[in-house]
Amino acid sequence: MTTDLVYHVAGAGLTGLALWRLATCRDALRRIMALNVLAIGIAMVLLASGFDAATGRTDPVPQAFALTGIVVLVSVTAALLALAERIGGRSND
Amino acid sequence: MTEASLIVSLPLLAAVVTAASARVARPVGLIATAANAALAILLARRVLAEGAQVTHLGGWEAPLGIAFETDGLAAVMILMAAIVGVAVAVQASDDRTPRSATDPGAFWPLWLATLGAMNALFLSADLFNLYVTFEILGLAAVGLTALTGTRRALRAAFDYLSAGLAGSLLLLLGVALAYAAAGQVDLSVVPALTESAQGRISLALIFAGLAVKAALFPLHFWMPAAHSSAAPVASALLSALVVKAAIYVALRLSLDGGIGAEPLRVAMAAAGAGAMLWGSWHALRADRLKLLVAHSTVAQVGLISLALGVAPGAADSTLWHAAVLLMLSHAFAKAAMFLAVGRIAEELGHDRISGLNREELRPGAAEFAFAVAAVSLIGLPPTAGFVGKWVLIEGLIDRDAWIWVALVFAGTVLSAAYLSRVVSRCLRGGPHVAPGARRPQWRAGDVAALGLAVSALLLGLGSALPFALLEITVT
Amino acid sequence: MSDLLPLAILLTSLGVAPVILALPDHWSRLRTALNLGAATIKVALVAWLSMAVASGADFGVGIAIAPGLSLELQADALSVLFLALSSVLWLLTTIYAVGYLEGGTDRSRFFGFFSLCVASTVGIAMAGNLFTFLVFFELLTLATWPLVVHRGSAEAHRAGRIYLIYTLGGGLALTLGTIWLYALAGDVPFTPRGVLGDLPETHRASVTAIFVLLIAGVGVKAALVPLHGWLPVSMVAPAPVSALLHAVAVVKSGAYGIMRIVYDVYGVDTVQALGLALPLAALAALTILWGSIRALRQDDLKKRLAYSTVSQVSYITLGVALISPLAAIGGLAHLIHQGIMKITLFLAAGNFAEARGVKTVSAMDGMGRLMPGTTLAFTIGALGMIGIPPLAGFVSKWYLGAGGLDVGQPAVIALLAGSSLLNAAYFLPILQRAWFRPPPEDVVPKRGIGWMLVAPPAVTAALVVAAGLLANAPFSPLGWTRFIVSLEYL
Amino acid sequence: MIAFDIVLTLGLLACAAMALTLRDRTASIAAFVVAGLLIALSWVRLAAPDVALAEAAIGAGVTGALFLRSARRIGPITGGPVGGMSASIAAALGAGGLSAALFWAFAGTSGPVPYPPLVAANLEASGVTNPVTAVLLNFRAWDTLLEIAVLAVALALVVMLGPAPVVPRALGELVLPFARIVVPLAILVAGHLLWQGATAPGGAFQAGAVLAGGMLALVLAGIGPAGERIVRGALLLGLAGLAVFVGAALAAEGLTGRFLGYPAGAEKAWIIAIEASLTLSIAATLCLLFTGPVRRPHQ
Amino acid sequence: MSAALFGLGLVLMSLGIVFLFVAALGLWRLPDLLSRLHVLTKADTAGLALVALGAACVSGSLAALLPLLLCVVLVAISGATIGHLVARSVTRRETAP
């Protein structure tokens, strides 16, 4: 039971860290990195809740979700970086 | 080949073809948009004739596989996207649009991807699938925003994409919590979610993500810059369609959630009221046409989510039909308005409101289309906006919810105020215009804007059709 | 086919409007042909309709909008009355407008919105239920606004803004009242002697509140006292607009709205039971006096006529508010009589401004000698307004007085006498200047005005005389109102 | 084993914190890549080998490369944190509270888990034995199709934006022998992963990412797709994946009447064919996302 | 037979871990970049090779040996290349003004 608890902590920690950084930083690259960390945190929390401590196996459907999440994340990150390069890294929102 | 599967895959295929070769982009794009409109009509006819259908993709039953639910609401939304799409495609096909810094043929793949994503979103009955469709929609919409290639547009596109990604991740967090709480992620799980505490938190997270993507009041900061700096064709699509997808999903969840989703609805109604006042206030003070229309989108999105929030959760209540009709009328009118603004800015060379009454230019068809679109945005009869507000206020009076009635009227008055600022300048004549002033000659953009504006006007007369469609739900 | 007659009448102007709007400015021959053709067809159709309605046929066509909501067009006796007025006067004013705007700019836009206005007036006349009435009522606001700001000058835009604020405000009040009534009573079709059933007893407070909202909504266009501000201000519009719209179409649709609400929504006895008849009558009386007093001090000719319209329209409201068949006949007849009299005055005033540049009362010296025809028409109209016996005005004031007596309110007679005196006080000086004062020496004809500007006021003046003399004929306005009232009150 | 998990989690959070807070950009990207690898390890610990492979290849590898490429072009970090220290502390408290609430929400649940039995029951009907590939390519194939669409749209967006303001210089001459060894190995491993995906952890995404890694080695060695035609070819290949998948879905509906319903008996063949085309298209897409169009394609 | 193999595996792995520990210590203590590079490329690769070999012995199956060997080869090659590149960019940055 404790393994997925540990990774729940890790996931929640990553999410909190990312949200904190999103709220406090102006630099474009740092914001993109924070969004990546946030996505990874969410995937970790998702997989941890799909992990069955008794059998030691994880429900394949959340694994598919995590995989899809990773691929979506890399494409959005590539788009964000392409845009960030052209506006000189200063995001003004 | 059922219409549902075709209407979802055709735009994606066309997007690939148009992305592959810029030379063939325009004709293929036009044909695909027209074919999509035909398919949408066929789909609506099938739903009217045979009632709602559920198609399981790959033959796998609901919790394991993904299901398409083509009920009345989905058919109406697909029709909306198709018709607005045709008009926008007509304006985009007018090849004299200014040579943007980026590849001019790039509009078509992005537009067709948006269309395909929206059709998939309206049909999907699975929370995670909604997340993925939102991602396509977000990326394609950002592409449309960055179409002009100016530094301001790229900055707005970056803010839009980072806000959109944050919204999607909130949505994904909600879906993950829904999976953790209820073990599955298709829409049939929503009623079960409303009981448990975790379920309610997951719904709250999902609604927060949707609020960011729908630019609902507290989380709308990215939207005015994005919609006002994009190319007029793109901002027409962004304001009229892309924003609606998030509201549609909120409506779908509130319907499935039934009574349990009451606190979320109250939050939406409150945010909606705030958006109406905030959006109208900024629209009143906007100095540029595109900014005014973008802020009016914030206000109208507020009105729609207010209509959605006050609709009672009871299965039999039909007050949410008013919200759908308001969405329809806003989609048509706002798209017409942005196309008209595009044409006006093209003729005048700028879009400052103060500089609207230029000496040597007589008001043309675009100004008239703007005025007609303004009428249906304000919600005066015989437009669909009026019928939507009528049904909404009648429902509210039945429940003696007088505060909401007052708010809806306040919204109407404010929208009349900031729109008449512009429309009065559209009716210049007499001493303002030099005798030899030329009248801008008709272009594809005028036809599209006028067509959409008049259809928004006449939709009020024909609103029996959407109401008939909305009656059909998956039993 | 018979059922589609109302739709045909509506489409003659609603269909023509977009076509004219799309026409380029210099295609004036085609535009005039379209305009006049549509007007004549409409008059013919209305004549056919009135004969059919007289012989008892009824018409109804409608489309469903939403569950429990439908747009209905019907032609009953009351609607034919208003239809006849607006279609005949539209034909005459179109002829006048074509002549008046010769060589002007933006004429396609003007005539497009002009026929849209008449289409909405016709729609108001033939509305089958309160929802349809509201739709066309708001459409009228939208169609008349561009005409008010037609000149495009800063002053026109200021007047347009005031006009919009008043009429949209009224529209919102009317919308709220209608929706509230629909929420309580479901669909509200116009049926003689009201349709509210037991609602007044169960929801007395909200029904009264709804009545106030509805009357306030239509009251703006009927220029009841606190809500009349827009009428004098929108006199900045070109003459045909002030003639047809602000003397006939817009103002009358307000009065017509009050009639529909009192007769066909609430029903005469419900209004009396709720005790709303007396305050309405009092408000009408106040407007009559207030309009006439303000008219005295106006030097600008059109502003004076505007204030006179404010007071004259309230005769109709008074006739409706005095719950008696005779007063009702007087009120309804005045709807027609005031229309033809006021349009004669406005057209004549337009001619004075167009031909001699005379815009104020003080500059009217010697107009009798310079422009005899127009001044004669102006005189007939003015005398009719005062209520001199053989003319139409006298007939309606006579019945209003009889109605007042019938209800046991002798004060009405005093009010009518007083207002007639006031009418005389602000009309006779104009006539005295025109006929008995020598024209100023340095006057020079500004522009020769063709038959298109002189004929319409002459025809309407003849109508004023005919309506007065042939009052008892079956097809006279008076005869028709007796037929209507027989339906409402029996 | 719990000790390893705790150490891994602490290391993970430390690396992520470093990645987000270090002032020097290259250092923070290095920390981010290390965090990515540690996360791949944690997926292994959570018995999700497919996700671990993908995370290592795409999450740490390609994303890290993208960050390094853009870091040089975006220029120095400008502007301090928003709103100074007090706002930062407030935000930290807020985020901490939120993550605690999240932990409580997720840890507290022990709800029903209907998916594993369902997947197990339908596994042999899906034509592949690896449950994750079965879910990805058969049960929820529609999600995967849309995910490929996301990649295609991102590609169209990056291509539309035109060439990057700064063209990347080749790294150096020693990269060439390195590439000469790594590229064939990458192709070999990618093929193996693709084939293995049907029975054991692996599949289109992991294979595509490894192949992309090989291609990037070529690009960095300077002999990569400099030519205009090669970029167009890569663009077409990148977009072809989506076209093939949608075409297969419609063909399946033509044959079996069910959208995305592969004909009985031939599921494995269909899945492998689709996965092969996806691998090539993902590799091409990831490469183009890294390099961007060399010159605007329509010029 | 397998017990001896298991014992050998354990010895090799502990030796490898000592190498890695020394490398980490070196990374921490050494002053400038070039010497740190020295540690990173050589000590780490050797340590990793030993651990991989030990793991192969512990698992005792030839099939497991192949992927581990592949890992070692790859780490060695990339270590060398990257070491060279980092060193080159550092020297270029120092020599250039």
Automatic annotation (TrEMBL), chain B:
Its main location: membrane. It is a multi-pass membrane protein. GO terms for biological process: ATP synthesis coupled electron transport. The chain crosses the membrane at residues 73-93, 105-122, 128-148, 160-181, 201-223, 230-251, 263-284, 291-313, 319-341, 361-381, 401-419, 447-469. It holds the Pfam family Proton_antipo_M. GO terms for cellular component: plasma membrane. Keywords: Cell membrane, Membrane, Transmembrane, Transmembrane helix. GO terms for molecular function: NADH dehydrogenase (ubiquinone) activity. InterPro entries: CPA3_Na-H_Antiporter_D (IPR050586), NADH_UbQ_OxRdtase (IPR003918), ND/Mrp_TM (IPR001750). Residues 124-414 form the NADH:quinone oxidoreductase/Mrp antiporter transmembrane domain. The keyword Membrane applies. Belongs to the CPA3 antiporters (TC 2.A.63) subunit D family. NDH-1 shuttles electrons from NADH, via FMN and iron-sulfur (Fe-S) centers, to quinones in the respiratory chain. The immediate electron acceptor for the enzyme in this species is believed to be ubiquinone. Couples the redox reaction to proton translocation (for every two electrons transferred, four hydrogen ions are translocated across the cytoplasmic membrane), and thus conserves the redox energy in a proton gradient. This is Na(+)/H(+) antiporter subunit D. It comes from Roseivivax jejudonensis. The gene is mrpD_1.
TrEMBL record, chain C:
Its main location: membrane. GO terms for molecular function: oxidoreductase activity. GO terms for cellular component: plasma membrane. InterPro entries: ComplexI-like_HydComp, ND/Mrp_TM, Proton_antipo_N. Keywords: Cell membrane, Membrane, Oxidoreductase, Transmembrane, Transmembrane helix. It is found in: Cell membrane; Membrane. Residues 69-111 form the NADH-Ubiquinone oxidoreductase (complex I) chain 5 N-terminal domain. Pfam families: Proton_antipo_M (PF00361), Proton_antipo_N (PF00662). Residues 127-419 form the NADH:quinone oxidoreductase/Mrp antiporter transmembrane domain. The chain crosses the membrane at residues 46-66, 78-98, 110-142, 163-185, 205-224, 236-259, 271-293, 305-329, 374-395, 407-428, 449-471. NDH-1 shuttles electrons from NADH, via FMN and iron-sulfur (Fe-S) centers, to quinones in the respiratory chain. The immediate electron acceptor for the enzyme in this species is believed to be ubiquinone. Couples the redox reaction to proton translocation (for every two electrons transferred, four hydrogen ions are translocated across the cytoplasmic membrane), and thus conserves the redox energy in a proton gradient. PANTHER family: HYDROGENASE-4 COMPONENT F, NADH-UBIQUINONE_PLASTOQUINONE. This is Na(+)/H(+) antiporter subunit A. It comes from Roseivivax jejudonensis.
UniProtKB/TrEMBL annotation, chain D:
The chain crosses the membrane at residues 6-22, 29-46, 52-70, 82-107, 145-166, 178-198, 204-223, 230-250, 270-291. It comes from the Bacteria. InterPro entries: CPA3_antiporter_subunitB, MnhB, MrpA_C/MbhD. Residues 11-74 form the MrpA C-terminal/MbhD domain. Residues 178-270 form the Na+/H+ antiporter MnhB subunit-related protein domain. Keywords: Cell membrane, Membrane, Transmembrane, Transmembrane helix. This is Putative monovalent cation/H+ antiporter subunit B. It comes from Roseivivax jejudonensis. It is found in: Cell membrane. It is a multi-pass membrane protein. Belongs to the CPA3 antiporters (TC 2.A.63) subunit B family. PANTHER family: NA(+)/H(+) ANTIPORTER SUBUNIT B (PTHR33932), NA(+)_H(+) ANTIPORTER SUBUNIT B (PTHR33932:SF4).
UniProtKB/TrEMBL annotation, chain E:
One of its GO terms (molecular function) is sodium:proton antiporter activity. Keywords: Membrane, Transmembrane, Transmembrane helix. Coiled coil: none annotated. The chain crosses the membrane at residues 6-27, 62-87. PANTHER family: ANTIPORTER SUBUNIT MNHG2-RELATED. This is Na(+)/H(+) antiporter subunit G. It comes from Roseivivax jejudonensis.
